[in-house]
Design a protein that fits this description.
about 0% strand
Length: about 70
């Protein structure tokens, strides 16, 4: 999964969407950990709405991208 996220970050950096000074592998790892945490919280709370509401804005914040 982190390889996918790393590729996503590198592509976004190439397109000028994400800051080129960020380390793509670090950002990918943060994204992976965030997704796992959101999914775990959703399971524990049995609340899919929290996953739906928090996943996209959280990932965009990690990437430093505004909606």
């Amino acid at each position: 999964m982190t390889k996918y996220f790393t590729s996503l970050v590198v592509d976004a950096q190439r397109e000028g969407i994400v800051d080129k000074d960020l380390d793509a592998s670090d950002i990918a790892r943060y994204m992976y950990v965030f997704v796992q945490g959101i999914l775990t919280i959703g399971r524990v709370k049995n609340d899919l709405e929290s996953v739906k509401n928090d996943l996209k804005p959280g990932l965009l914040r990690i990437l430093g991208v505004s909606e």
